[in-house]
Amino acid sequence: MSKLTGKIALVTGASRGIGRSVALRLAQEGAFVAVHYGQRRQEAEAVVQQIAQNGGKACAIGANLSAPDGIRELIAGLDEAIRDHGDGDGFDILVNNAGIGQILTFEEATEATYNEVMTINVKAPFFVTQQALPRLNDGGRIINISSFVTRVASPGVFTYSMTKGAINTFTLLLAKQLGSRNITVNSIQPGIINTEMNEGTLSDPDGQKYAAGLSVFSRWGEPGDVAEIAAFLASPDSRWVTGQLIDASGGSHL
């Protein structure tokens, strides 16, 4: 028996990057995975197909989390997945991964760019969690994807860093509130990971040298590095770990 057999997981922003790797890894452990996507339907369906080819089960749920009805659509899709694949009326694992990067300084930020990043990176996970929580089984898991920029001041990504600081506080508050239900809540803080968000940095030799030089391991991170941590946090092995901000930057800036 795999550690997540019989569990249902929802991973937001799972059509690519870290979310995709987390979805694949949770499915590998036996979970049924609801693969959320915003606009990339084909990529999300490819993730579902890959999970199926590996012997797992999954479905794709499309919802624009920045739209007024987006979260309602996501929760409706989750309810359908629970009805079709669960033994009860609840699910077990929520991974708040969906987010956008934003390379802007304090001076360059505008009200429009501020609202955009706050809506996707803070407002969406707040209300997704609020709406999903009545469906989350006691003993469940909430995993939030933050960033190491909350530990290392990075003025070049000013408002993005602020959003991840909010996610860290959100993690602590939820962990305190949900302890009585044996629900753990933790945050993973990746460093520079080889995803589309960091394509500009990692496509350039100087950027590659910089990214590799940050870590004590002299390399940049891969999505699978984060997915392995998520798999642990989703499993019964993490039952005594909650309210933690787990650095996943390969020792960057030690």
Automatic annotation (TrEMBL):
<protein>
    <submittedName>
        <fullName>SDR family oxidoreductase</fullName>
    </submittedName>
</protein>
<dbReference type="InterPro" id="IPR036291">
    <property type="entry name" value="NAD(P)-bd_dom_sf"/>
</dbReference>
<dbReference type="InterPro" id="IPR020904">
    <property type="entry name" value="Sc_DH/Rdtase_CS"/>
</dbReference>
<dbReference type="GO" id="GO:0016491">
    <property type="term" value="F:oxidoreductase activity"/>
</dbReference>
<keyword id="KW-0560">Oxidoreductase</keyword>
<dbReference type="Pfam" id="PF13561">
    <property type="entry name" value="adh_short_C2"/>
</dbReference>
<dbReference type="GO" id="GO:0008206">
    <property type="term" value="P:bile acid metabolic process"/>
</dbReference>
<comment type="similarity">
    <text>Belongs to the short-chain dehydrogenases/reductases (SDR) family.</text>
</comment>
<dbReference type="InterPro" id="IPR002347">
    <property type="entry name" value="SDR_fam"/>
</dbReference>
